[in-house]
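Homework help board

Subject: predicted structure for assignment chain

Our instructor gave us this sequence and asked us to write out the predicted structure in token form, then describe one feature. I got the tokens but I'm not sure how to describe them. Can anyone check?
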Amino acid sequence: MQSVPIGIIGASGYSGLEASRILALHPHVELKLLGSDKWAGETAARRVGLPGAAGKLKYAPASQVVALARECAVVLLATPAEVSLETAAALHAQGVRVIDLSGAFRLRDAALYPKFYGFEHPRTDLLSEAVYGLPELSKPPAGTRLVANPGCYPTAAALALAPLIEAGLVEGPFIVDAASGVTGAGRKASEDLSFAEVDEDFKAYKVLRHQHQPEMAQTLGRKLTFTAHLLPAKRGILATCYARLAAGRNLDQLRSAFLHKYADAPFVEILENPDQVSLKGVTGTNRCQLAVATDGETVVVISAIDNLVKGAAGQAVQNLNLIQGWPETAGLDSLRGFHP
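My token output:
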């Protein structure tokens, strides 16, 4: 099969780096463009150690990426939402398909953007065209021109709760408590994210104002309370999701709902006991581990993903595979965890 030219803009951030490493070894991909002002002019072999032809690529500055992207069939945007808005529109006008890893096109209601993202959405036409790509729940069809890649927290929460809601097994109130490694905040220097501040600490942040809350509510079709926490770890998300057991339902039905929903999902692993779900079971992979428990009243679902892989770059590659008509696991089935 002939390789397809793919680009990554924002290639020096954590998600962009992860996407670069995955796509450099993807059997159907020719990495054609790596965009980064920070590393402009340097090779990917020197900065990241990419192998072969991908390593010979030089990072292009932001002033050149849109013009260079004309040679690409698809471009992944690992850029902040404000940057993605402008860049996606320019690429879309050139006929280049886009998978956006920011929140720029995730919310269907443009009125939510000022509160949760701090800007008025200028392209409601693209917002309505964008396909939300959480493959286990909503696969983007082949040929999709604009994919909104889900956020990391919404991925963990939606995979945990959607099958139970869909089957009518649980009721509200719905609560999601989730903790992420520091890479979820992006690759930028700040006092709050320095080693001395984060190490041996654990705290909540953006309480009742996190930008992923409306995305979760949209995906699940339910109101919920979401609280994010910062883990003193590099990567990974562990989400604890709460609901009420619907009348007449039981644990076997809860487990069966997951097994049925994810029977053909190559990256979802259903475990017997929530105590078995762990970050080390998923870190470095595109997998999501899930397990459910109930005491007959309260339902608890624990999910774990790698925030940079299934929560970002890996899911973007999964969406790339789908819109290109490739096997869903291409480039992802050889990823292995970091432990032991």
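Reply (TA_rk): Your tokens look well-formed. For the description, you could write something like this. The chain has a mean pLDDT of 95. That's the kind of observation they're looking for.
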